Amino acid sequence: MTPLLEAQHVRKTFLTGGFFKRTETVALNDFSLAIDEQQPIITAIAGESGSGKTTLARLLLGVIVPSSGSVRYKGVDVSSMKRDQWRAFRQDVQAIYQDPFEVYNPFYRVDHVLTTPIAKFKLARTSAEAADLIDATLRKVGLRPEETLGRYPHQLSGGQRQRIMIARALLLRPKIIIADEPVSMVDASLRATVLESLLRLHEEFGISLIYITHDLTTAYQLCRDIKILYRGSVVETGDVEQVIKQPQHPYTQLLVGSIPLPDPSRRWGEDTTTGTRQSDVALTGCLFADRCPRLMDRCTTATPPLFQTSATRATACYLYEGETQASANAFAEQPIANEVS
Amino acid sequence: MSAPVLQVENLHVHYQTSAGIVKAVNGVSFQLQKGERLGLVGESGSGKTTTALAIMRMLEGPARIAGGEVILDEIDLLKLSDDEMRMVRFDRISMVPQGAMNSLNPVMRIREQIRDIFEAHGRALARSEVEATIAKLLARVGLRPEVAGMYPHELSGGMKQRVCIAMAIALKPQVIIADEPTSALDVVVQRQVVETLGDVQRELDAAVILVGHDMGLMAQFVDRIGVMYAGRLVELSPVAHVFSSPMHPYARQLISSIPNLEEKRLFKGIPGVAPSLLDPPSGCPFHPRCSEAMARCSVEVPALCETAPDRWVACLLYDEVLSHDPTS
Asked: What chain B residue is nearest to A221 in terms of C-alpha separation?
């Protein structure tokens, strides 16, 4: 069965540098993901800045085209869609961006971001119908229409603005929402309400969610599966409970160990492993080798593939080579929804 | 207990806007002990950054200190002339500002920027000691000596942030104020920067005020937490108490809204919206959002009182516990 949204071995490179000395930066490498229409899931893509998270979001939304590999929606390559296919794709796959301040035009009332998609996608026949639709949708994300409509963006809090963006996405009855750091600029006390709205969309309307974040705690809270990105490559993927509680890849271990736990009796230990990333220069072998506390000889000569370490997870690290249960290539093509069954 | 190194008394800061006066900081008082780490938390607009800037006398534009005292070493900083205050900054109290890494001068090498601090305070370094002093300073924040010869754009965000910490500690101040020093950094780098700050703080035996809203970071770093709401301190207690048994209803909701790695899908927000400081609610500013509000709460403004040793709270629920405090 064809997955709803599928990324197959997607690679994206950018050319940087001057006219004479151009270098190629790999923003995303060999990324595969599949979302099944019958089994909606919430999956997290986590990584630090520069790991390729936003590039991935833009690739999945069809805003940029992969250098190699493909992004397919219902089996059709997103970069070569016909006009009506593209229109359907733009309705079914919605985006929520990081900055709830920048997406609004400060001169328009917030109603504008809700009425525009209704007009554009002909979601209502009369203005009364449109008003009812907006009313109902705002309530679904926990906003009171009378406290929201008719206001200007600066009169609302970051959390309210972000929930309006979720309402806007919801208006279009999407099948998938791609949320790129939706709460990183929202006040901590309002984060919960935004995340709760997202979770409700998944539970009530069966919308799949791709949650792109640097925050492992909210990823853990919200998602079932997680993929950890490091410098454009997936280093670990699988069930979020296992990946966060027993991280396998040394990079994931470093990330999880650096989470500031909200518990004064469990402070960071003394083990400041680390070093920072040395450069963007392409290295041979594992991209984490220059920071890895468990470096082996072979790590610097060949890039480790994802080794399937259990039925529900895989890690791109030679430490787990012996534990592999299935061929790494076979795993990469498994739709993510089938990893856990 | 020894005399506090910094004492903030009834601080008021007003912003003059076209719509009226915004009372961004409304009667904040606290003391900071030598070598102590205090966290100031609260949602955006609660006045935590304004408090920090007022202590540094770095407020600009429509902001004005409308009253209070900031006593550092028996001197009221608010009474100093601008020139006198300039000499106090960096020397006795310094700040790592929000987005500090953007505060570096892009066209000056790190060495010159650090040397400036010494020169501006009449402690110009002899040519022979420049390299050694700066190298030592950079080493203290975990940077290689070569960094001195670099420009800011050659450094990563975490490195720039450490340069800012190095500058803040160059003259060995007694108080360091760090305003969201890691908000733009990744968790791994955040941990390194915060640990660096902790190390230098311990070496200098300086006091630190960490301003921010990341409760995880607070739990990891500070000794005491001050919770701000609508320009007021509503709770001030040791960090372990704030996390295990917060007293103020706002602090309780704040603590229970923190996502953790124990329970999944348990999103608890704080209902309601922060009040407008242009037209704040009468009485306790939190009463419209408070689930335990009483009739008195919309009339009386609760004062910050010590309800148990070292535990301060501004809430009428605890009124009967204490002897009435007439100052408010």
From this structure: B264
Q: Strand order in A208-213's β-sheet?
A: A93-96, A176-180, A208-213, A42-46, A225-230, A233-239, A313-315, A307-310
In chain B, what are the domains? 6-321 (3.40.50.300)
Q: CA-CA distance, A119 to A158, in Å (whole number)?
A: 26
ipTM of the complex: 0.81
Return the pLDDT at A24. 81
| CA distance readout (Å), B209 to A151, B32, B36, B97, B236 | 37, 8, 8, 12, 13
The tens digit of pLDDT for each residue in B266-318 reads 777 777 777 878 888 999 999 999 999 999 999 999 999 999 999 999 999 98
Is A258 within 8 Å of B261 when comparing Cβ atoms?
Answer: no
Q: Report the gap between the CA of A326 and the closest CA in chain B (Å).
A: 30
Helix (H, G, I), strand (E, B) or coil at A153: helix
Q: Do B268 and A157 count as a contact with CB atoms less than 8 A apart?
A: no
Contact assignment for B43 to A222 by CB distance below 8 Å: no
Name A153's Cβ contacts closer than 8 Å, sequence gap at least 6: A101, A104, A105, A106, A110, A161
User: What percent of the residues of chain A are helix, what percent strand, and what percent coil, each to the nearest 5?
Assistant: 35, 20, 40
Q: Could you read off the pLDDT of B187-246 as tens digits, one per residue?
A: 888 888 898 899 989 999 999 999 988 899 999 999 999 999 999 999 999 999 999 999
Distances from the Cα of B50 to the Cα of A155, B59, B130, angstroms: 21, 7, 35
State how far the Cα of B259 lies from the Cα of B271, in Å rounded to an integer. 16
Rounded-to-integer distance, Cα B245 and Cα B234, Å: 14
Those residues with Cβ within 8 angstroms of residue B219's Cβ, 6 or more apart along the chain or in another chain? A260, A261, A262, A263, A264, A267, B239, B243
3-state secondary structure of A233: strand
